[in-house]
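User: Round two. Same drill as before: sequence, then structure, for each protein.

Assistant: Same drill it is. First protein:
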Amino acid sequence: MADVLVIENSKKLADLFASDLMLAGFRVKTAVGYHEGVRLLDASTYQVIVLNPFFRDGSADDMFEKLTRDNLLDRVLVCSADAERVKSCNEKGIHAVMKPVQLMKLGQLITQIARVSEKRIGGLT
């Protein structure tokens, strides 16, 4: 199963995503906020990054710049309750879904992103 990093703006939401995803068979790490998210992104490789782009301690634009610089944007799944953010991400080719999202749909999207990620990573070695 895929290695997933969940970056949320609250511990409660991060833990909720993590517990649901672990029950679905994914290996999950969580980060609360921008700085912890960046630290974990720099420390390890994840096949999928589930991201709520609203941070109390940093900028969503800075996070998207980092993900672009690190060539990770295709591994991102934005989960947001902001319809405009979801629409904007989808228009830019970034996977995005509205919260609340059903676990089955979330699992399917993560699996799809992970398969593409695995192929890309495999092609680099």
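Second protein:
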Amino acid sequence: MRIGLIAFSAFSLITCGAAFAAGLAANQPTTSCVTVNFTGEVVETPCLVSVGNANSVDLGQIKKVAGKKGRITPVPFYLTGCKGDVNAVCVTWDGATTGTLEGGKLTTNIKNVSMSFYKDSHATSGSEVKAREVIDLHIDATTKGTDGVNRNCLSIPLYARLETDDTKEPESVGTVSSSVIFKVQFK
């Protein structure tokens, strides 16, 4: 973009300079030229992104029994402080910061308990979201958060749930946790 702008500006100056010189030599009225400056802005991201409550999503409780599936929970993405038009975002979960990826499931701090991601609220077979799979989120509405700040609510084709191993019960009881990195691209 910058090279095209420089070339355009240089061409304009040469053309205007030649027209001005020709007008003087022929003793005719001169041609008027104008320099146009183009501006824009580079921003880190057009919006601030938050997920759930303080970037935490509560997946509820699951019993210490083999083969249990927890409740399906939407992963709510919110945008605030948007500058310019943002019609949709796409997110990609890129891996875990505390767990590991095993068979498309994310391990947690409790052995034999994992977290799975789905594209629908029924967690049907084939709706599992794999790591690095792009998920498009579209702006549904704008609401005022509990902090009084307007937020864009995104439609959520992303759901998560806790699951225990099919053959082994969890090694312990307690708070389950795992952190995931999401990459967010604005459209």
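The first helix runs from residue 2 to 25.

User: Perfect.
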